[in-house]
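Sample A.
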Amino acid sequence: MQDFGLYFQLGWQHICDWQGYDHILFVTVLCGTYLLADWRKVLILVTAFTIGHSITLALSVLNVVKVNTSLIEFLIPVTIVLTSLVNILNKERSAITVRFSYFLALIFGLIHGLGFSNYLKSLLGTSTNITAELFAFNIGLEFGQVLIVLAVLIMAYVIIKLLKTPRRDWVLFLSSAIFGIAFIMCIERFVLIKFK
């Protein structure tokens, strides 16, 4: 039980760590088009992302899937750039674009799970009985993700409802800023890819 608490803490701290802010940027831009009133849609969106990253996190940590670490580190900001572009280009939140967002969250979750696994594998070392640690770490990731989502929704509420900023202006500002940061990350990480 003590290990559960430790790995739970490591999970939420990892996703909320400002030094590795790429996951924070992704969750922020993923939920950046929603308001508190849209909590059901956000729940489905975050669940899709969770399913994706839970699958690849487990497969990678259990050594079922082996990945090129530098390629994954490049693909993570690519997911942020693409999600930002979807937000910028979609002027209306139709049922089709919402479903497309769910699909992207699931697919991009697969990539982020591989990124999470690199960190978790470094913590586990040569340990062989890792099921409990994997579960605790994943629950910690979810807790951290919920904290980020709540912060984004509260920020959107303040900016849109209290400061009377048009919703589209908020989405364009947030998504464009995150696009710029992630695009620079893509360029920096592309040169570090080691093809095997």
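Sample B, a different protein:
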Amino acid sequence: MTENGEETAPLRRSEVTELRLASDGPGRGACACASSAADPTALPQDRSQAILEAAKQIGAILKRAGHPFALAGSVAVYAHGGSRYLQHDADFAILPDDADAVAGTLREAGLDVRVPPEDWLLKTTCHGQNVDIIFELAHQPVTRDMLDRAHVLPVDSVLMPVLCPTDLIHSLISAFSEHYCDFGSVLPVVRAVREKVDWDVVRAACGDQPMPAAFLFLLERLNVIDARKGQP
């Protein structure tokens, strides 16, 4: 997803356990995914599980270091009850001012952190999967308020903050433009979380932009969401 308040009581609240980082090997607290990358037989057999393992490992590292963050992208949708079929990277949202500190934390954990030409994210690899550390969503800086609205949810087995559904959908719809307008990929995401989204907030934030407005109209015609108040 790199292109970019509601309650969560109904969501699953099963017992979860904290992911323990490996304490043996090259350095105390070294990231398990850094060493496993050299051993393909140690990786999960399916892509979705590999992405989940990467998200859990990175989330555990950021939690241990005390960095404010929230899980984003397709794994965030999964945490909110969406499909487990994941075919993209894992995404994390952090504050822009924390980018250098987060990069240092990941490097200390044994991960290679790359700075791409884009100036709104960092990249790393875990369990053979790409992980994007994002500090802008849909061309808007990640804010403290956004992270404060995150829901703490179990991601497979690890509790971590996850972007709230309204912010998650807003970031996806706001990214639509003349150059990127893949309604088909976002439609199943909206179907999965539509009842948890404050659509008035989404409309107020991006509903006047042509491509987001077209997608919102499509959602109304498909009866995925209710029509805007005051309209037939």
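Observation for Sample B: The longest strand covers residues 121-126.
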